[in-house]
Automatic annotation (TrEMBL):
Protein name: ABC transporter ATP-binding protein
Stored CDD domains: ABC_Carb_Solutes_like
Residue intervals of the ABC transporter domain: 6-237
GO CC entries: ATP-binding cassette (ABC) transporter complex
Record has Glycosyltransferase as a keyword: no
Pfam families in the record: ABC_tran, TOBE_2
Cross-referenced PANTHER family: SPERMIDINE/PUTRESCINE IMPORT ATP-BINDING PROTEIN POTA, SPERMIDINE_PUTRESCINE IMPORT ATP-BINDING PROTEIN POTA
UniProt GO molecular function: ABC-type ferric iron transporter activity; ATP binding; ATP hydrolysis activity
Native species: Sedimentitalea arenosa
GO biological process, one term: quaternary ammonium group transport
Keywords, sorted A to Z: ATP-binding, Cell membrane, Ion transport, Iron, Iron transport, Membrane, Nucleotide-binding, Transport
Length: 369
């Protein structure tokens, strides 16, 4: 079996008796980008700091290329771990030139260093600034110099903590893509920390979804998005509609007909969760909606509460007659029906998830953004 570039096993970190990192395990292969994704305070940065060696774990192990780097007894110091760091506030040294910054962690002769510096600055398209100083560069250019500096010593692993959050949106996409291709070329294993699902979807080969110190789901972005483990995992990536229903005879009754809830005991509440893009809208035809179909189920009559244009799509909120629940639907382009308009909704049944009912937790996890 191939040896992971980075492997962490059951990392635990306690602050004031609280497990802020709780049995976190990960394996990252060379050239692979893994995103540790989760809301603020879930323990992402603490995990990263332990791997970097600037913080000690209370238990667990860190392995690099099959060799133990740190457990609770043995510890390779941070500077000998061959790990590159790139943080949002990881500023360049203002008194050093661009070349001086990139050469900072390099060993070897003056000529060797100069060659490596030039190679990397060329790669990030900043060779013309080799003798310039950080204050002469834009934020995006400084970020690219920081990337060149982090990559110059050929780290085996790159740890990145929200490295692009200081950049404006237009710059960010370009720099993300450049960074990604450079890291892939160098065959670096990357652990990127972010609280932004879009960033994780864009960058990651694998997403590790973290909550309250634990990894709750791990896999390729497509799998994490389309097969969420729970209601909060759906809501973290997008708006989520939730219908609460009680189970009887393994069936949950909703405005859209019955949903299977196999193995759920009678009189237990479940949440039927689906994304706004999986709600279909139809016009009212003399009090009638579309006919039921096996894929879309039974249509539910609803009234428009409000509609907003979001740029590439419109977001329409409905109140469903059946039980008064509020549902959101997205429609491509401009669709802005007046409040009070009667319409009929159906849902893509294959895109609905049935989970045990949860209380307020999901809202705290980003639902309703
Ligand atoms: N040195 C410390 N002493 C006490 N508590 C700490 C310390 N460092 C972090 N914490 C707590 O540990 C938890 C996890 O913090 P951490 O910075 O790892 O979260 P995060 O997921 O990276 O959040 P963010 O995205 O906001 O940076 C937080 O509740 C934080 O308050």
């Amino acid at each position: 079996m191939p040896v992971p570039r980075l492997e962490i096993r059951n990392l635990v970190r306690l602050f004031d008796g609280r497990r802020v990192v709780d049995e976190v395990s990960l394996r990252i292969m060379p050239g692979q980008v893994t995103c540790l994704l989760g809301p603020s305070g879930c323990g992402k940065s603490t995990t990263l700091r332990m791997i970097a060696g600037v913080e000690m774990q209370d238990s667990g192990e860190i392995w690099v290329d099959g060799k133990l780097v740190c457990d609770t007894v043995f510890r390779v110091p941070p500077e000998r771990r061959q790990i590159g760091l790139m943080f949002q506030d990881f500023a360049l040294f203002p008194h050093l030139s661009v070349a001086g910054n990139v050469a900072y962690g390099l060993k070897g002769s003056k000529d060797e260093k100069r060659a490596r510096v030039a190679e990397l600055l060329e790669r990030v398209d900043l060779l013309r600034f080799i003798d310039g100083y950080p204050h002469q560069l834009s934020g995006g250019e400084q970020q690219r110099v920081a990337l060149a500096r982090a990559l110059a010593p050929r780290p085996r692993i790159m740890l990145m903590d929200e490295p692009f959050s200081g950049l404006d949106n237009r710059l960010r996409d370009g720099i993300r893509d450049e960074t990604l291709s450079l890291l892939k070329e160098e065959d670096t294993a990357v652990l990127l920390v972010t609280h932004e699902p879009d960033e994780a979807m864009r960058m990651a080969d694998e997403i590790a979804l973290m909550r309250d110190g634990r990894i709750v789901q791990q896999g390729a972005p497509y799998n994490v998005y389309t097969r969420p483990v729970d209601r909060a995992a759906v809501a973290f990536f997008s708006d989520a509609n939730v219908l609460r229903a009680q189970v009887n005879g393994a069936l949950a009754q909703t405005p859209f007909g019955q949903f299977l809830a196999p193995g759920v005991p009678d009189r237990t509440d479940v949440d039927i969760v689906f994304r706004p893009q999986h709600v279909k809208i139809d016009f009212d035809r003399n009090g009638q909606g579309p006919l039921p179909t096996p894929t879309d189920g039974v249509p539910a009559r609803a009234q428009v509460v409000r509609a907003r244009f979001m740029g590439h799509e419109s977001l329409v909120e409905f109140r469903v007659d059946y039980d008064g629940s509020i549902l959101k639907a997205t429609v491509p382009n401009v669709f802005l029906p007046a409040a009070g308009t009667v319409m009929w909704l159906t849902v893509r049944r294959d895109r609905c998830f049935v989970f045990p009912a949860t209380s307020g937790k999901a809202a705290a996890f980003g639902e309703g953004r």
